[in-house]
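ok new one. same drill as before - structure tokens go in, u give me an amino acid for every spot. 128 of them this time. try not to just spam alanines like last time pls lmao
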């Protein structure tokens, strides 16, 4: 990884926020624009208030907890939608303006825009 990349990595059990938990790894897309790195994470069934996003020591951690979907009385016979939620870690290179991170959550997708610091943005040189 050069010092200006965002590297996608999967969270392994040792990184899970609760030891022995069964957090799912959300699908993610990462792309680069001239001004930023943009990460999009698929978080179905999550409410905005349950999302935790931290950026520290070269890592961005995303955790989103799920609330039980079955509110009626009855016996749950089969479930593939339950679990504590989602968790994923991304390695973040140097050159990110950590004071200006933009995060939005719409229709089950978390979009995080990591703006590049001025020194790593491409710039055009005027030729005289």
């Amino acid at each position: 990884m050069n010092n200006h990349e965002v590297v996608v990595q999967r969270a392994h059990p040792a990184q899970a926020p609760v030891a022995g938990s069964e957090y799912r790894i959300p699908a993610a897309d990462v792309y680069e624009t001239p001004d930023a790195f943009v990460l999009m994470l698929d978080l179905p069934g999550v409410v905005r208030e349950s999302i935790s996003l931290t950026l520290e020591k070269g890592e961005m951690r995303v955790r989103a907890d799920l609330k039980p979907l079955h509110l009626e009385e009855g016996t749950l016979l089969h479930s593939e939608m339950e679990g504590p939620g989602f968790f994923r870690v991304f390695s973040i290179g140097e050159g990110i303006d950590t004071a200006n991170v933009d995060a939005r959550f719409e229709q089950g997708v978390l979009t995080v825009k990591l703006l590049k610091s001025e020194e790593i943005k491409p710039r055009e040189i005027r030729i005289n």
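The first strand starts at residue 6 and ends at 8. and btw Strands lie at 6-8, 28-32, 36-42, 51-56, 59-65, 85-92, 96-106, 109-116.
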